[in-house]
Every structure is written in structure tokens, then in C-alpha cells.
Lipoprotein-anchoring transpeptidase ErfK/SrfK (Thermocatellispora tengchongensis), 397 residues
Amino acid sequence: MHASDRRWRAPLAGLAVAVGAVVTAGCSGGPASTPSPAAAEDTAPAAPAPTIKVSPADGSAKVRPDKRVVVVAEGGTLEQVSVTAGGKQVEGGFDESKTRWVSKAPLMPSTSYTVTASATGAGGPAEHTSTFKTLKPERALAVADVTPNVKGEKVGVGAPIIVTFNQPVSDKAAVEKALIVKAEKPVPGAWRWVSDTQAIYRTAKYWPAHQKVLFSARLAGVRGGKDMYGVKNTSAVINIGAKVISTVDTRKHTMVVKRDGKTVQKMLISAGKATTREYTTTSGVHLTMERANPVRMISPGREKGDPEYYDVMINHAVRISNSGEYVHAKDNVWAQGRQNVSHGCINARPDQAKWFYDNFQRGDVVIITGTDRELEWNNGWGFWQMSFKEWKKGSAL
């Protein structure tokens, strides 16, 4: 081989070494410029903790009591929500995703509330605490009276529930939703508004006898009208007694009393003489309302000297309408069972009238037949004179 050939190969060999070095260096530099998975996790931004939002906002004052409390978690799910006032919890519930909680019942007026909530998410836990206060209503709505509601009293199967409010109600639907009736032996029933301050509950059929009925007015926080909210709840237990049905036939001059289907009294009576409208006994379904012994009875719209004028004291009188009708004692035994001579009342022999007086329950049914004057549905407790279909039309719901 020529010397010139050797001199040429040497540089080639050196070049080869140099190129190999470059390649090697290039391979070893790869990991430095491409991060490993572990390194990528270390440098990725962390997920934020959940955000809890509450309405009403923290520090709110004059919150409407009928406003719902809403708690929402963004970026996570709610673990716990508590809304309290005076140590009492506000009822509420989560949605299916547990990202939203909403209170169920109205809030109390003039009350401070505390909201605490916690949530969890990919970014960890979150907690929230806030407070708000409900407004003081310009007018406070409450139940002024519930009838019947005498402690220990048993009432008849026809008894209504009459609720009287202390303020005129304009938002009747909202208030009616807050009126709850629960019976041990339930039967359909409905409310009817007879005025802006009074609602009456009547069943479709008579109450089943011998049971308890619980009435509650959950008015606290309920809006009854402009600037008017309920300030407290009311409840009453109503005891339904025996099924007492009295049937009066003014043509046969008889009255038969049945208790739980069994005849317990037969009475000869005298009814209204029907010379005028006011002296005509009303036919229809009456309810016993109250009693007194004696009752002063004065002829309506007549002056002394009028042949039809009277002013008398009557014993053992049980009221069955507001137009002056009673079942009462009278010693005109000669007429009882024979003819109608009264001024509209049902009178009976004194001892039998006393028995009726001693044994009746408010709300017992007295069905009178045989006259041409119908009892008006709003004459006393004549509510059974109206069909239930018509009765329900008086409901705000």
C-alpha cells in the first residue's frame, strides 16, 4: 500500500470517532429535554378546592321569611349543611348530585340564622359559615281561634274545624297550604274561605266516630299578604265522639236520637207554627252548636203590644242555627206529638229536653224534615246543606 493511502485513512478514522461521539452525546441528552411522568405530575397546577355559595348572602338583613336557603358547591360535592336559629334546625334536602341543598319550610320572622356547610372535591375539602337575619313583618299573622278546641271535649261526627285569623288574609293559597288536618281514620275534606279572616274545614262525609283529629297551622314565616307573615305555629287535638244523629219529623211531631246506630231516645215534639217565615222551622241538616240553661228568647223585630211579641226564659236549650232555632224544654205537653205551635224551635217534654241537653256533643247532627223553609248553608253550622263538590269551590287551592 502506498504511503499516501495511509495518510488519507487516518483522518477518516478520526472523523469516525468524532461522529460517534456526537451520536453518543445526542443519545444521552434525550432524557434531559423530555420530563419523566413523575416530573410532569410535580409541575402540573393543583386542582382548586370546592367553592361554597350560599343565598341569602352573608350579613343579609331583612330577608323575607318565605325565601328559601340555597347552598351550592362548585367543583365538588356537599358533605354537610346546617341552617340553625336558636338551636333549632331548618329542614332541607340535597339534590341527586349533592351539589345543591335547599330549605323546605319558611323561616321565622325577626330571627338570626347561621349557615354552616362543608364540601369535598379533587382539590381537597372546603368549609363555609355565614349568617343572615329575617325581616320583622309590619303585620303579624296568627290564628286567633280554633273551633272546636275545648280541652277534653268530644264533638260530633258533623263537626267542622273553624279557623279564625287575627288579620285579613289576601294570599289565601299560601295560608291554606299551611293548614294541615290529620285523622286517625282519614276521610276526604276541604277548606272553604267564608271571609278574609275565616276558613272552615268540612269532610265529604261525616267523620268516622271515636277518633282523634290533629289540626295544625304551620304559619311561621308564611306570607299572608303584603308585609304580613305568620309569626307562630298553632295546633289542636280534636276528639271525635260517638255518632249521634237526631231525626226530627215536623209533620209527625217526633224526634228520634240514635247513638252509633242504636236508638237511645224517642221524643214527642212541637215545631214552628209557620204563621210567618221567622216562625217556620228550617228543614235540612243542622249541627248542634252550643247550649245554655236558661236562654232568654225575644221575638225578632217585634215590639211590646204586638200579639206575636214574646220575651221569655227557656230551660235546657241547645242551639242548632243562628236564626234562633233550639231544641229546648217546654211544658206545653198538650201540643207535643200533636201540633206545631212554637216560634220556630223544637220543644220537647222538660225531662227529655234535659236529657238531650246533658247528652249532646257540639257537632252532633240534627236532620229536620217536613217544612217549606230550607236551612241556609251559612245559617249557623249549616255547612252540610251544601254539596261537597260546591263546598270545595271555596278553597283557594
